[in-house]
């Protein structure tokens, strides 16, 4: 950074953010995140954002032990969002990998907290023609319709040569899937793929449910931590007030002793012979 004279001035580096400060910032942001993350840029929205940041800064400064500027708080919030998006991108990449290798990554608690606060920032587009979009409802309905379509088997009788093979193909009666008795047949490649996709869907459902439970547990743990922090803060504040009262009492006692000594000196002076 250069000043008016062209000389470079070293930028002042702020102190690193610890996990407790980040957790406190998230708890202060929860109430105003819908206003701050509003994508509109009109005058009223910008005023609301400014007021929301001021309230966040006030709550954060009252509970935090380290002094922070508003620019530092805004930059830290942007950094936390970028880190959460990067972590979710790595998780999605590891889930889409084929078999083998280590276990797929899971989002860390901080990413899950930010995901629950601003889910619109983590939405992804779905495509019917994308092979990875297995959970798309349109694809599921198409797969279901393919499974429920009737199939027709054919019986080929041996001919005299290869030219009359088409003439000796005899269609067998249609067999609807609703019939009770079905002819046993070997699993085809499509059946194997359907079973594989079904297993993947079930695994994704279980993963989604596990993540939901994990988010609930993390939220509850975060609430308990914040409650303990507030209690500790109140205890420290009360202890500080008691120390101040004790110092005032000691000061008053000292003044009384000084006055007592003055009176004793004056009494001795009056008792001395002239």
Automatic annotation (TrEMBL):
Stretches assigned to the Myb/SANT-like DNA-binding domain: 13-90
- Entry coiled-coil feature ranges: 237-271
- Which Pfam families does this UniProt record tie to the protein? Myb_DNA-bind_5
Q: Does the keyword Coiled coil apply?
A: yes
Q: Does the keyword Transcription apply?
A: yes
Keywords attached to this Swiss-Prot or TrEMBL record, sorted alphabetically, are: Coiled coil, Transcription, Transcription regulation
Enumerate the InterPro entries for this protein. Myb_DNA-bind_5
How is the quaternary structure described?
Answer: Self-associates forming complexes of several hundred monomers.
The record ties this protein, via PANTHER family, to: APONTIC, REGULATORY PROTEIN ZESTE
> What role does it play?
Involved in transvection phenomena (= synapsis-dependent gene expression), where the synaptic pairing of chromosomes carrying genes with which zeste interacts influences the expression of these genes. Zeste binds to DNA and stimulates transcription from a nearby promoter.
Name by which UniProt lists this protein: Regulatory protein zeste
């Amino acid at each position: 950074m250069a000043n008016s004279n062209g000389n470079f001035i070293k930028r002042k580096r702020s102190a690193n953010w610890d996990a407790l400060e980040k957790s406190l910032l998230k708890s202060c942001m929860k109430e105003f995140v819908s206003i701050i993350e509003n994508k509109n840029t009109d005058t009223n929205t910008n005023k609301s954002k400014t007021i929301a940041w001021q309230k966040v800064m006030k709550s954060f400064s009252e509970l935090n032990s380290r002094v922070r500027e508003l620019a530092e708080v805004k930059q830290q919030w942007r950094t936390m969002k970028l880190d959460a998006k990067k972590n979710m991108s790595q998780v999605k990449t590891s889930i889409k990998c084929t078999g083998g290798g280590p276990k797929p990554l899971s989002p860390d608690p901080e990413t899950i907290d930010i995901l629950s606060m601003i889910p619109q920032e983590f939405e992804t587009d779905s495509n019917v023609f994308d092979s990875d979009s297995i959970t798309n409802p349109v694809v599921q309905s198409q797969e279901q319709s393919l499974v429920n379509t009737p199939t027709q088997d054919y019986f080929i009788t041996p001919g005299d040569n290869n030219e009359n093979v088409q003439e000796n193909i005899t269609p067998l009666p249609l067999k609807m899937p609703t019939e009770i008795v079905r002819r046993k047949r070997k699993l085809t490649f499509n059946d194997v793929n359907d079973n594989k996709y079904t297993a993947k869907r079930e695994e994704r459902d279980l993963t989604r449910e596990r993540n939901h439970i994990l988010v609930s547990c993390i939220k509850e743990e975060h609430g308990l931590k914040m409650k303990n922090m507030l209690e500790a803060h109140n205890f420290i504040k009360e202890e500080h007030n008691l120390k101040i009262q004790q110092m005032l009492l000691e000061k008053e006692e000292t003044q009384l002793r000084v006055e007592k000594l003055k009176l004793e000196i004056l009494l001795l002076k009056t008792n001395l012979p002239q």
